């Protein structure tokens, strides 16, 4: 298939932060599966030429390329509906919504402008049907298994967390450390800073326990009472619901043990307690860390099971194969594994 991928090549459009999620997982997964993929970096074009010229260039590139499908990953207001309408006249369109569980106004505005759009929410079909918006395709996050993989390294770190700083996450990390648990932390906003992709994958592999911590607002009384800022952050934050994120699949693809916050639907992806572990509250988090640190055999068995499940069911090659079939492309056009 000939695919035009409209996304940012770099993380949040900043080259110094490294390549974007879409570049690693969409562009490379589709290209490695044998598709002819052209990446249109709207953020870079916007910086160079301005919004109007960037939108016009996207239309012109679609006319020249005549792709089988245009796949969009939007950020904020870089594109305009008129541009999407022009592209839609030339090819089928698919928009990937990362956070429609909490960016509701954004996704509901843009969804009708595309032939199809995705949601990671398992209840998305019913939700969008009630709104009278057609074209919904359920597509959870997944993983590029060529980039997230097991490494031959020693499990030399007790507990690790890789992710952006968030006040709730900082509070949880401090509670773990006060309980005598050593935790290595990296990511945007933390003193250690951002890890490049290779270093992040190595960190996952080196950790005995990889934490997956929520960045939604918390109404835990202990968190809110620690300072007036806690209450203010909870009231202001638009992230008031949990969701399944890419990190759930990335850690497991490395055959690394994961202890995660619970979110509705996670049990449909992995067998909780058998393939990965979840904590229910801050006290349970501390207890679970201690419990699993004391049982290496259990951790390794669960990590292996999660890794095997990830390769069977959760790669982006499989995700796109199913979505393209649902869009009406024939198995010959779709990715390998589409008939599974």
Automatic annotation (TrEMBL):
Residues 169-322 form the Spore protein YkvP/CgeB glycosyl transferase-like domain. Pfam families: Glyco_trans_1_2. It comes from the Bacteria. This is Spore protein YkvP/CgeB glycosyl transferase-like domain-containing protein. The lineage of its organism: Bacteria, Pseudomonadati, Pseudomonadota, Betaproteobacteria, Rhodocyclales.
């Amino acid at each position: 298939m000939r695919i035009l991928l409209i996304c940012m090549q770099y993380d949040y459009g900043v080259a110094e932060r490294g390549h974007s999620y879409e570049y690693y997982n969409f562009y490379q997964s589709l290209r490695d599966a044998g598709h002819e993929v052209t990446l249109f970096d709207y953020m870079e074009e916007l910086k160079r030429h301005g919004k109007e010229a960037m939108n016009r260039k996207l239309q012109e590139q679609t006319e020249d390329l005549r792709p089988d499908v245009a796949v969009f990953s939007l950020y904020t207001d870089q594109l305009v509906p008129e541009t999407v309408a022009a592209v839609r006249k030339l090819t089928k369109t698919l928009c990937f919504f990362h956070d429609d569980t909490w960016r509701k106004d954004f996704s509901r505005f843009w969804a009708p402008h595309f032939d199809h759009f995705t949601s990671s929410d398992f209840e998305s079909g019913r939700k969008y049907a009630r709104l009278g918006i057609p074209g919904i395709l359920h597509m959870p996050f997944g993983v590029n298994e060529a980039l997230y993989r097991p490494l031959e390294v020693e499990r030399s770190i007790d507990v690790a967390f890789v992710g952006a700083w968030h006040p709730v996450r900082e509070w949880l990390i401090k509670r773990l450390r006060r309980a005598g648990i050593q935790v290595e932390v990296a990511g945007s906003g933390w003193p250690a800073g951002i890890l490049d992709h290779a270093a992040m994958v190595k960190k996952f592999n080196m950790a005995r326990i990889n934490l997956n911590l929520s960045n939604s607002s918390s109404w835990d009384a202990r968190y809110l009472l620690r300072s007036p800022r806690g209450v203010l952050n909870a009231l202001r934050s638009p992230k008031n619901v949990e969701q399944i994120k890419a990190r759930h699949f990335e850690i497991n693809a490395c055959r690394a043990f994961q202890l995660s916050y619970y979110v509705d639907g996670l049990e449909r992806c992995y067998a909780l307690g058998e393939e990965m572990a979840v904590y229910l509250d801050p006290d349970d988090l501390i207890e679970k860390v201690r419990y699993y640190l004391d049982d290496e055999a259990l951790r390794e068995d669960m990590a292996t099971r999660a890794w095997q499940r990830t390769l069977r069911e959760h790669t982006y090659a499989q995700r796109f194969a199913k979505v393209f079939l649902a869009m009406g492309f024939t198995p010959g056009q779709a990715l390998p594994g589409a008939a599974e």
